[in-house]
Write a structure and sequence with these properties.
single chain; rod-shaped; about 350 residues
Length: about 350
């Protein structure tokens, strides 16, 4: 399909007619034939000599070719564009932030890995989360690690492969041995403040109670609710543990309830997989399909057609003149006596 970027330029097609209508014809002085017996000739023929110029008429070929070249030139200036077939792509509509606890208790050997062997909690969490992230095609995913402090491991990105790789590099205590659950939520709120997505979801996984935050988790949840952020909380480990490893289930439930999320608990790998399976079904893929039709400039098409027509015209004209010249020479040769 063809369209014009500047269709108003087509008004220039009328320019030759306007010039012909408003401007006087071109005048050119040339030597003429002097007739000394013009008065006598006028008396004999009864006609009077008039004034004015003779207007030369072009050949039919030029009358056709010149307007055609003007049309081609104006069309090229109007910038014709070829509209390509529609191209569609999925545009992310949601930012999903995953926060993972890397405190010292995550090295407790009470979970199993993918092969069924006993492993620490972090190894199981990374394997389950890796499968969860692999299904987030169409989301922008961010990653936060927290221990004694919280830090951004990956800003929001559509590159899930990089995000999964950074998750796989997580190590226990790399953020400190304690648990700053509230600070992790606060850092997540800061990341969402720079997001323009309408849907903002955060999934926080921890295996202990908050022991190092400057912002209490309930207060952070209250702020998150005001900014439209939904927080799902996931606890891993023994719910009957005591001390620093004791799970603060009421706080996790409060954070989830305050922001409209859900709280889930997993004491083994199977339950953890079921939880992320439910979260995957709960936070279904949300994407907007954006379609556009690329435009390609083809102004060289009318220019090429015009140039081709001009070449053909001048080639025919030269051939015709050469033929006329040859015929005149032949006639002149017959009339001259040898």
């Amino acid at each position: 399909m063809i369209t014009l970027a500047y269709p108003w330029v087509l008004l220039l097609l009328l320019l030759p007619l306007v010039v012909r209508w408003w401007l006087p014809a071109h005048r050119e002085s040339r030597p003429s034939l002097h007739v000394p017996f013009l008065d006598r000739l006028s008396q004999l023929t009864g006609q009077r000599a008039g004034t004015g110029a003779s207007v030369l008429e072009g050949v039919l070929g030029r009358k056709l070719v010149m307007p055609f070249l003007w049309i081609c030139l104006v069309l090229a200036v109007a910038r014709p564009q070829w509209i390509e077939p529609p191209v569609s792509r999925s545009k992310p509509m949601r930012d999903l932030l995953v926060a993972v606890d890397l405190s010292g208790s995550m090295e407790t050997q009470d979970f199993t890995d993918a092969s069924g062997k006993t492993s620490d909690r972090l190894t199981a969490v990374k394997q389950v989360l890796d499968g969860f992230l692999a299904k987030r095609e169409g989301d922008r995913v961010g990653l936060i690690f927290f221990g004694t402090a919280a830090f951004v491991q990956a800003p929001f990105t559509e590159d899930l492969a990089v995000c999964r790789q950074l998750l796989g590099e997580a190590q226990v205590k790399m953020a400190g041995p304690q648990t700053a659950f509230g600070d992790a939520i606060g850092l997540g709120i800061t990341m969402f403040d720079r997001s323009e997505m309408k849907q903002k979801v955060m999934i926080v996984l921890t295996d202990g109670n908050d022991t190092a935050s400057q912002v209490p988790p309930p207060k952070a949840a209250e702020i998150a609710k005001g900014k439209g952020i939904v927080i799902h909380t996931v606890s891993v480990g023994d719910p009957t543990a005591a001390g620093e490893q004791a799970l603060d289930v009421p706080t996790l439930q409060t954070v989830a309830k305050e922001t409209g999320g859900v709280y889930s608990a997993a004491s083994d790998r199977k339950q953890l997989e079921e939880i992320y399976g439910k979260l995957d079904a709960l936070e279904t893929h949300a994407a907007e399909t954006v379609s556009r039709r690329p435009k390609r400039d083809v102004h060289y098409w009318p220019l090429g057609i015009g140039a081709g027509a001009a070449l053909v015209y001048f080639a025919v004209l030269l051939a015709w003149r050469a033929m006329q010249s040859r015929e005149q020479r032949a006639v002149a040769g017959k009339e001259v006596p040898v």
